Amino acid sequence: MDDSSEPATLREKAYASFTRHLLARDLKPGQFVSQRELVAFTGLPLGAIREIVPRLEAEGLLTTIPQRGMQIAHIDINLIREAFQFRLFMEREAVALFTVNASDAELARLRREHEDMLAQALSQAPTPEMEAKAQNIDWAMHDTFIDALGNEIIAKAYLVNSVKIRLIHQERFRIDGRVVPVMQEHLTVIEALEGRDPQKAVEAISRHIDNARRLALQI
């Protein structure tokens, strides 16, 4: 049996486990952490942790501070501005292409999903479960635009930025109490998609992302 792929598999598992714990807030922005602690969090070998540290540093998710150890990325103004600028650049082009190429069935699915969520939010008091579902619908639509490009380079870069965007959401603003306006903004995007109007879709997604950026920048 060929075990040559095992180290790479462990690296990917370690990376996936790190980001999962980060998004679950087991690891918090600005927190100092040791390699041994990451071993405990991930349940993976020290060698795999050591191998992902350079990747995490290159992606801006981790910084090594001399004589202090490794620090999880801070959520600061520069990170917010850069993460949202990257998101805007990627999604404007992605949504323009999606407008032209998406199937009618895919657009119908997006509309149904969002209208059902909006109706639920308008008809009942918010619950953590409902808001978690709405958040997943929110993120899934954006991911759909990028996935539809079929470009692995863009998908990987967008995924790294998505981790940062999700951290910003957790630290600066959440969908809690905002399900209705978020679903309405998404439905405006979906309406432009249904009209097969790339320019309107780009304008709608730009407004939606800018609204999120402005909320994140509020102190």
TrEMBL record:
The keyword Signal does not apply. Residues 8-75 form the HTH gntR-type domain. Keywords: DNA-binding, Transcription, Transcription regulation. Gene3D superfamilies: GntR ligand-binding domain-like (1.20.120.530), Winged helix-like DNA-binding domain superfamily/Winged helix DNA-binding domain (1.10.10.10). SUPFAM superfamilies: GntR ligand-binding domain-like, Winged helix' DNA-binding domain. Pfam families: FCD, GntR. The keyword Transcription applies. This is GntR family transcriptional regulator. It comes from Mesorhizobium escarrei.
